[in-house]
Amino acid sequence: MAKAYQTKVFLWDRGAITGSDRHLWQHVQDLGSSWLAATTLQELENLARDVGADRGGGTSVEALADAFLRFYESSGWRLTEVNEGHPQFQVLEGAGRKALDNLASARTAWGLSRQHPQALIILVSADATFVRKLNELNLENLRAATAISLRAWQGNRNAPPAIATALGLTLDPNMAAAGARSRRSRAWPWGWILVGATGIGAIGFWYTQPRLSQQIWQTIQRAWPKGR
Known about the structure:
CATH superfamily of the largest domain: 5'-nuclease
Number of domains: 2
Mean pLDDT: 82
Number of strands: 5
Shape: elongated
CATH architecture of the largest domain: 3-Layer(aba) Sandwich
CATH class of the largest domain: Alpha Beta
Largest sheet: 5 strands, parallel
CATH topology of the largest domain: Rossmann fold
Low-confidence stretches: 175-188
Distance between the termini: 72 Å
Number of helices: 11
Strand content: 5-15%
């Protein structure tokens, strides 16, 4: 049975911040509170130093980091320095900077979940594979979501499946019906394909075997019941 969590806490990693925009940063607060690891804020500050003095509305990683820092000043987002490991995190370990960053994010999210056992902690990441792996661990009051799925959730109020399960939510019936119709519309029309293939084969046989085809046709005509 899903636990009745009192609130939802969104912990954003750097990739999720620089892969989204102010609209999402602001309106995700309709779903719950947002947090950052102190190290993530430091990384964003380092990126923002490379933005020109004009601070144009660019979409580069550096420009988005700068835009976020200006948003953050009055956002009400909170910081955490927690860092706590879990035995199952070994499946998240790997080589390279990205793997290390993901592991650090998971450790922060897990530590936050221990500090707030009555909340569902949702780690927001730009790495869909990492999100899937973390959700497969099925850890108590810790789930993950991509910024893209978070945007959809904020828009249509349908939580991503792993989070919906943790919260004990069910998919909107209208959305489920639409999904079923979409799957049916993408299905191959095998019946019509079979009819078409049979017709093409009959035509080909008629032209390649005209004498035999004529004999078969005459036999069918003799066997067909004659009208009164």
